[in-house]
Amino acid sequence: MRIEQLEYITAVTRLGSLRRAAEELHLSQPALSETVRNLERELGVDLLERKRSGAKMSAEGRELLPHIINVLEAVDRLRGAAGEQHRISRMVRVGTVNAATVPLLFPAVREFRASHPETQVEVVGAQQSDIHRTLLEGGFDLGLVNHLEGDDVAADFEYTELLRGRPVVCVRPDSPLASLSVVSVPDLLGQPLIAMRSGYVMNRFVHRLLGDREPSFSYSTDGAEMGKLMVAEGLGATVLPDFSVIDDPLTRQGAITCRPLAGDATRVLLMLQRRRADSVPRAAHDLHEVFVRRAAALGGTMTEAVRPTA
Length: 310
What we know:
By secondary structure, the chain is α/β, with parallel strands linked by helices.
């Protein structure tokens, strides 16, 4: 078994294609395919499922992937201790539904990089179902997802609650809704509404909140970040967790503000998830700890978002 064989299999897993992996590794596709086949024969396991649409980790491969990564990281540490000048940087991949990006995600990544300068962090915005699937396939190390309190959680993952907030109405300061201390459903129905697309937790919450009443859905979009930008441009109001609005640059600049929903006690949970495994790559473990520490520091500030702001 050679180290490059393990590096090649992680490249195929990350890129989802033998062709793309071969291009990145500057190998011919037949040479890469044969190298991976040799590793599979040596291990006695089919690491990849090969289809016309691409290659992805098999169930057996997903079980072995953390061990492969641990071996590569151990080699990196050995090379570093020996003064090797060409250490191979590892990467941690985070899938996020674009909630709490500013107050939590960016500071956490910045802190992690300060102590892990050789490790890249790749942040990918995706819907919750895509994050679940990619975590299972080994393409993501961590996932940031929203849950409504009481939602069932999948048994394949370990979950850590980072933030607990409540839905709020996000508006421009010059919106009629901004003059209210709380926003009722009839108030909300009287304004153009920017909805999250189907598949997002806040889409489900808004439909549950409105029931049979027909809102004026003027726009739909992917994720909180685009929703906030559309609000700032005066296109309408949107409903988001308070932790995705508080301390946002647009809030600090006075471009958006938020108001609580009248009579609603729903709680939205920002959860950090990772696939259940016997071993976890060290870098992913360390980033997980940074998220937990940063969330604990933010936890006391979340209630401020329910207060009217100018």
